[in-house]
Amino acid sequence: MYRLQYHTNLASRWPEFPPGKQLMMVASELNRAKNMTVRNDRNEARNALERAFELLDLTISQARTMGMLTELHRFREVLAQLYVGHAYEAEEVQKLIKVLVSLDKDSFTALYDTTTL
Predict the structure, then answer these.
(1) What is the pLDDT of residues 67-84, one digit of tens each?
(2) Confidence (pTM)
(3) Three-state SS for 114?
């Protein structure tokens, strides 16, 4: 694992969080990136994406199944394409959030539970 820039104290505690919470924390950074994109603040959107990468890499290091590991790597590749291509469009980031939280039942339910709407 590389040296963390934004979450220096979180690496040791990351395994304590359940997978759904980990994904929600990554999604939170992606949501910040989306909001900064809407505000046309590209620099802060880029910073939020970099923080999302750090949390995603911590999540990948804790993946318990080969299926989850594969899907997280695929997600990271798509996120990297968005990051490198500077295509910080709010709609694209929102799609990524939905895909990410759908990888875990608990995180998906937390965001999209229709019984509480």
Answers:
(1) 999 999 999 999 999 999
(2) 0.88
(3) helix
